[in-house]
TrEMBL record:
Protein name: Aldo/keto reductase
The NADP-dependent oxidoreductase domain, residue ranges: 25-317
Organism placement in taxonomy: Bacteria, Bacillati, Actinomycetota, Actinomycetes, Propionibacteriales
InterPro entries attached to this UniProt entry: AKR, Aldo-Keto_reductase, NAD(P)_OxRdtase_dom_sf, NADP_OxRdtase_dom
Gene Ontology MF, one: oxidoreductase activity
A Pfam family this chain is assigned to: Aldo_ket_red
Amino acid sequence: MTITQRTQRTQRTLGTSAPLSVSALGLGCMGMSEFYGTPDQAAGAATIHRALDLGVTFLDTADMYGPFTNERLVGEAIRDRRDAVQLATKFGNERLPDGTRLGINGRPDYVRSACDASLQRLGVDHIDLYYQHRVDPTVPIEETVGAMKELVEAGKVRFLGLSEASAANIRRAHAVHPITALQSEYSLFTRDLEDEILPTLRELGIGLVPYSPLGRGMLTGTITPTSIADGDSRSTPYFPRFQGENLDANLALVDRVRTIAEAKGCTPGQLAVAWVLAQGDDVVPIPGTKRVRYLEENVAALDVTVDVDDLAALEQAVPRDAVAGARYGDMSPIDA
């Protein structure tokens, strides 16, 4: 079976009370414009086009990526194929055009203006899935989601999502308007949400969209102590798992994953993505890349079967408490 044949028939549904059908694997577009090395708009556009050809139609961006340039890139790339795409974007991490960060903003007036600005940059008349990127602790989530609900009623947005929200705020938000999906970090290296958040999602009928399912590239097996270029945010203390002794310890875990992957005839990254996919049909990971060859490698993970024995082996290879370092140097923006 070819990759194209496999992905064309592989769909998953996010949410039950407000269901959205998407490709089983999505594409995170952030790195095309910022954070992970030098932006490459042309390569990013080519990767989006190839993704659509392969049946990866669930595209993820945000207004703060670039800032603002990633939405323009995605909008231009899908211009003649909008109807084939499930388009997700986010608001809430407020930035100026020069990149200055203003903080988290969940005020209703900002929700409305941010959506209008995203629609203009994307060049579309509606957003399929609109996320609150981070929960604003100064604004009751009922007020933020109330404004998001108005966007649905106005036809500007089809479905609503949250990102990195606590179980309590997920419940409060869902009571205002059905939440279709939660986007949060989830991978072999980050499993915090299994304790309380994932059971809450399943109780309420909300899908999970894991970002960084490859541990920000660590689980691809291509990271070394000298491979991260200057200008890549992973080289900074903002990502403690990539620093010093933490990196050494985590690369040792990746070697264990590599051993299991080699026995299965796949790459460590493919096995890591397949592990996330195996966590449930309500889980749709969005590995990010700006290169066609890495996209194709990720898509091939759909053909990797992870059975009970594989899950047990991976659990032993990467125990939850074995990963060294916090996922962010500053965890304060994460709702808890």
